Recover the amino acids of this structure.
């Protein structure tokens, strides 16, 4: 056999093993009830959010003064209308785009930043203390309060919300990433890479990072869920997404003023928020079970 | 119990010193973050404090008075010096000393937090034990679902739903408001019940999980197996042998929950119109009274750091293994 053939053979074996590994994870995932229920709930919410402009091209801001506070089913409003006569259903669907968008943005950004911080803290002991003390300090400040304060200083708006919620969530990911990376770093193959003269960047990003991905992704799904809650809370307090853009928190904010007259302005956006957060949390739990080699 | 000899223990002393030393950088960074929150905001802080109607001369006067013209490090150390002496400044908006303002709003928040904590613990610990006793069977699954709902339900949302049901529909309890304890226990509790349930339920989700996990861990240990082999009755096994040892992590979670609840009260207070720290925060945000926000964040964060220090020290006092581990590292 020539050298080239041996190399190809080895590549083929590697690919087959990787495929088997993937199939195993996928099979475990499909058999895990929690993970399946969670992903079905989350995916349906995402599909509903994406389909909003197709279903209701007129948008969530159309008011109709004569149909204020219509009950569900009245005047053609399936889920009722709000105090300005806007359809709750349309606002919920468009609000899902904002609430889920903020949640996903925060989840993704915290995951990336948290991994960078955690990996570098783990690999360079000199950075470790500095990075971890900053994380300690940031988590000593209660997250809702810090988010409120940051949004108050920076001003509301989707970009600033994502930024504030990310700052609040990064320490959690960084801690998980660091502690998982610590275990990986002690493995023999990392030592082998080092003695072969691989660069730090190569070791960190090609050999440690892929192996800490699963606990970090699990954390990110919890952070996604938490960001949705905090965004709703901030908008509900009137310091989040600026009106009249619909977010689930904003609809609840409007609903609080008319709580004695219009239960549908509380119950529907509330159900949407709680269901999505539940879906993401269940998904995270399921994913943790699937990826954790200790549970079977 | 005899006087605590652990405090004189050399390992404990080492642990104590080490734990306090790690606090110092954390506290410095916390103070920097809180200071910079206000001072790195775009725009002139004096102009923001006075609002849109202020004249230029007034803004300049306030800038001079508050020392906003000095370089940032000078301002930071002056502010830190004030904080260390217990002087948090004063609110330009309310025109009162910060200490006085905070004290006035602290009472309702503390009452709400304590009430919520008691309700959550009373609800969560028995359910967690029930789930652990019936591991893998129906009660366990039901409790899991309950705790999942607790974790996924935002407190303000639960608050709104409780108002809808108990205040608007059934008219059993008031929808909002607050009466201090001086006007009678019953009235005080009546106004705080719905907010305390709303606030406590979210935290009970986590407590249930911890109680269940820590009971299961203890039940798996060798000494429980030994006790069972010896023929100890199931009831006594649970109450005497398992629960007592599982209690340490449970109590830790309950103590940590205090901080989560105090912070979570921010939103719940606004829902129920309770004049606590949370409502003060939100009002200060709306009227751009940044000094008050800074003071509240500082107060709550310091309490947080102190409570976690106390928990760690108590842990060392209760469980000898913890302090030996920590000092040995």
């Amino acid at each position: 056999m020539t050298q080239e053939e041996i190399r190809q053979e080895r590549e083929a074996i590697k690919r087959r093993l990787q495929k088997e590994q993937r199939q195993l994870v996928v099979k475990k995932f499909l058999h895990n009830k929690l993970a399946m229920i969670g992903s079905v709930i989350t995916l349906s919410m995402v599909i509903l959010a994406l389909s909003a402009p197709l279903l209701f091209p007129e948008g969530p801001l159309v008011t109709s003064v004569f149909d204020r506070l219509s009950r569900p089913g009245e005047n053609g409003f399936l889920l009722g209308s709000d105090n300005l006569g806007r359809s709750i259903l349309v606002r919920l669907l468009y609000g899902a785009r904002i609430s889920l968008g903020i949640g996903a943005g925060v989840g993704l950004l915290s995951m990336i930043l948290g991994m960078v911080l955690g990996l570098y803290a783990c690999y360079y002991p000199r950075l470790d203390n500095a990075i971890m003390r900053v994380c300690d300090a940031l988590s000593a400040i209660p997250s809702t309060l810090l988010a409120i304060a940051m949004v108050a200083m920076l001003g509301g708006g989707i970009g600033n919300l994502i930024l504030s919620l990310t700052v609040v969530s990064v320490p959690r990911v960084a801690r998980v990433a660091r502690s998982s990376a610590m275990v990986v770093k002690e493995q023999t193959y990392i030592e082998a890479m080092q003695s072969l003269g691989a660069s730090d960047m190569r070791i960190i990003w090609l050999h440690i990072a892929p192996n800490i991905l699963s606990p970090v992704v699990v954390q990110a799904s919890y952070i996604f869920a938490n960001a949705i809650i905090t965004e709703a809370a901030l908008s509900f307090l009137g310091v989040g997404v600026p009106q009249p853009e619909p977010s689930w928190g904003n609809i609840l904010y409007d609903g609080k003023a008319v709580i004695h007259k219009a239960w549908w302005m509380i119950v529907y956006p509330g159900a949407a928020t709680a269901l999505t957060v539940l879906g993401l949390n269940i998904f995270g739990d399921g994913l943790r079970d699937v990826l954790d080699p200790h549970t079977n | 119990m005899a006087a605590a000899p652990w405090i004189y223990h050399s390992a404990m002393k080492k642990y104590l010193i080490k734990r306090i030393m790690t606090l110092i950088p954390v506290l410095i960074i916390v103070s920097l973050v809180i200071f910079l929150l206000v001072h790195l905001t775009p725009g002139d802080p004096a102009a923001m404090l006075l609002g849109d109607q202020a004249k230029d001369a007034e803004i300049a006067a306030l800038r001079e008075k508050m020392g906003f013209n000095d370089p940032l490090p000078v301002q930071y150390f002056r502010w830190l010096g004030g904080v260390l002496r217990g002087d948090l400044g004063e609110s330009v908006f309310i025109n009162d000393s910060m200490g006085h303002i905070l004290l006035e709003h602290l009472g309702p928040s503390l009452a709400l937090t304590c009430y919520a904590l008691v309700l959550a613990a009373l609800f969560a610990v028995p359910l967690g034990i029930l789930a652990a006793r019936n591991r893998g069977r129906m009660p366990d699954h039901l409790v899991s679902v309950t705790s999942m709902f607790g974790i996924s339900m935002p407190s303000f949302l639960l608050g709104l739903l409780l108002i809808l049901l108990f205040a608007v529909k059934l008219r059993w309890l008031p929808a909002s408001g607050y009466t201090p304890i001086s006007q009678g226990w019953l009235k005080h509790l009546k106004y705080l019940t719905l907010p305390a349930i709303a606030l406590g339920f979210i935290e009970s989700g986590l407590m249930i999980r911890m109680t269940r996990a820590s009971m299961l861990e203890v039940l798996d240990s060798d000494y429980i197996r030994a006790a069972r082999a010896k023929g100890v009755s199931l009831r006594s096994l649970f109450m005497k042998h398992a629960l007592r040892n599982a209690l340490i992590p449970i109590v830790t979670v309950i103590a940590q929950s205090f901080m989560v609840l105090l912070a979570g009260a921010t939103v719940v207070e606004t829902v129920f119109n309770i004049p606590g720290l949370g409502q003060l925060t939100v009002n200060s945000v709306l009227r751009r009274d940044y000094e008050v926000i800074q003071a509240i964040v500082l107060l709550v964060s310091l309490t947080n750091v102190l409570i976690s220090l106390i928990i760690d020290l108590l842990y060392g006092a209760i469980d000898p293994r913890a302090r030996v581990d920590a000092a040995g590292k």
